[in-house]
Amino acid sequence: MARSRFNSIRFSAFFLLIVLTAAFSFAGCSGGGSGGATPAKVIYSDTKAVDASGGSFSSPTHKVGVDITPSTFYQQSQVGLEVLDAQHSDVQKDGFYYSPNGVNLSLDPSALEGIGRAANSSAVREIRVRLPYAGSYSQDHPPLFIAMNQNGFFVPVDFVTDTVSSTLVGLVDTMEISALMEGVAGKLELKIFTANIRLAALESGAISASVKPFNRTRNKFETGAIPSLAGKRVALVVHGITSSLEKSREMGEFLATFRKGGVLYYDHVIGFDYSSNARISELGAKMAAMTYPYVASAAQLDVFAHSMGNLVARYAMTTQNAEKVPNRLSMVKHYVALGGPHEGVPLVTLSGFKFFDMMAYILGIETVNCVYDLLTYVDQLEPYTAFLRDLNDFSKNAGVGPEYKTLRVYSMAGQTYSNYYMSGIVPAGRIFNYMYKNSVENSGKPLVYKIDGIVADYSAGSTTQKNLGKLSEYHKNTPGAAVIFPELNHGELFNSLKAFNQVSDWLNNYWD
Fold first, then answer.
1. Rounded to the nearest 10 degrees, what angle do helices 280-295 and 309-318 cross at?
2. How many CA atoms lie less than 13 Å away from 397 in the CB half-sphere?
3. How far apart are CA 330 and CA 323, in angstroms?
4. Which segments of 312-394 are extended strands (E)?
5. Do 41-85+96-197 and 209-346+394-436+448-509 come out as alike in CATH topology?
6. Helices 356-363 and 428-441, axial angle in degrees (round to 10)
7. pLDDT at residue number 19
8. Which one, of 131, 135, 171, lies nearest residue 5 by Cα?
9. pLDDT along the chain (512 residues), means of 10
């Protein structure tokens, strides 16, 4: 049996693009699984009093078993196991195979050594859960082993793989249990399952993209003819991963109604709408090609991008097209970067384990190719793929895109993750924070930065490697151009009054 580990040596249940919904109110969560309205039925049930000597449960017919190692509990406690005739519908998302039976495990965390009281020995304390996995086993994309509590919060679990029996043995320890306890009073009610990515789902699909005007009368972005922008002042909105212009209405409304000196500042507000099912470079190239015909003769073009939309916009602005012709969006004058992962998402460990499968589970399977380009290594924050490395290598694109000395860049980062939810349901912020924390700490370092629910503050503000400072002399030398709001989460950077007030301040006091 081969053991899969999380982070530098632990975990390959991978848990993140996953997302960055989640979505992030940042985005929308894709998905929905195969479940139906009829609840699954319990086909196996057992409850036992487990003490310091350990205990076990087994349903061999369904390849389900639980072994609690000695010293895991320090006092007697009731532990319950249920096996259902079908998998829980609420854990299933498109693009994955799932363990066929729903498995419910209930326990009282206060009886656990290391939780109910301080651990008095270094003995291995684990709840080992055996589950089957469906589909073929892939070394590049191992299955996910996930434990979800009654509030919908879930964590990745270390596992041992038995490819002969097509089962995984999840190693649930106090680290996972402690995380799952957050917000739960009393017993933990866990849904435990495996999810194995369908490899065919990794293929990029056709990009769906369009340029839409913001209709001031109907107060929304909508499909329609783009008026002539020649000689006009134009704002261009670019949404984040798995999101849409429909979900960008607040930003569109703010820009369309903003007045400076009592006069509407922007003549027109337009947006670039795109699907999140391709590499970021493909999306950026599509943005450049589709928006240029409209904005080429505009008197002023300002870009407002959120989340991954920042990387889409930066690629469109600062890289050459296939014919090596200088990019056509070089006329951008102001660029407002809201929660952008300019330095990537540090969820690749030294041992090579990557989190894009888990991020794809969180954000939706169609995002897997986007997520691939977001990842960086935990230790040195080096990009995992060439995309970020090339995007942030400004020597490669010298003379391409907006002028370094004239482009004005403004960035905003958040530091609150706990109240960031995807589609109002999945606690994406807490899940991603768990991923960040464990990937960093398991590499032997403390977590020294904060996240907004998806993106770390150093990445959104480029406070470490100063990539936005390399893009714009103004951003490098103007303290007020880079702002961090400890109280805002990822979605709020794009739709909250506080964020809009900050953009208003930039427009009123920093715009020339």
1. 60
2. 25
3. 16
4. 332-338, 345-348, 375-377
5. no
6. 170
7. 35
8. 171
9. 40 36 36 56 98 96 97 96 97 95 97 86 90 91 94 91 93 93 93 93 86 98 97 98 96 98 97 95 93 94 98 88 62 95 82 68 89 83 85 72 86 96 86 87 77 94 65 87 96 98 96 80
Answer whether 445's CB lies under 8 Å from 381's CB: no
Q: What single letter denotes the amino acid at residue 446?
A: P
Farthest CA pair distance, the chain = 79
Query: Phi and psi for 171 in degrees, rounded to 5?
Result: -110, 85
Domain covering 209-346+394-436+448-509, topology: Rossmann fold (3.40.50)
Nearest in space to 249 (alpha carbons), one of 207, 209, 306: 306
**Amino acid letter, residue 249:** R
> How high is the pLDDT of residue 52?
95
- What is the distance in angstroms between the CA of the first residue and the CA of the last residue of the chain? 65
Name the residue among 426, 495, 399 with its Cα closest to residue 32.
426
Read out DSSP for 137-182?
Answer: --SSSPPEEEEE-TTS-EEE-EEEEETTTTEEEEEE-HHHHHHHHT
pTM of the entire structure?
Answer: 0.87
What are the structural domain ranges in the chain?
41-85+96-197, 209-346+394-436+448-509
DSSP 8-state code for residue 245: S
DSSP codes of every residue in 63-106: TEEEEE-TTSBSS-EEEEEEEESS--GGG--TTEEE-SS-EEEE
Provide the pairing of β-strand 158-162 with 2-4. antiparallel
Residue linked to tokens 């470079």: 281
Give the tokens for residue 306.
Answer: 């959120």
Angle at 142 between CA 141 and CA 143, to 5 degrees: 115
Say which amino acid occupies 316. Answer: A
To the question of domain 41-85+96-197 being in CATH 2.60.220, the answer is yes
Question: For residue 65, which of 177, 196, 182, 162 has the smallest C-alpha distance?
Answer: 162
- At residue 121, the pLDDT reads 76
CA distance 240 to 310: 8
| DSSP string across 26-57 | SS------S--SSPPPEEEEEEEEEBTTBEEE
Closest to 129 measured CA to CA, from 212, 206, 204, 72: 72
Torsion of CA 200, 202, 203, 207, to 10 degrees: 130
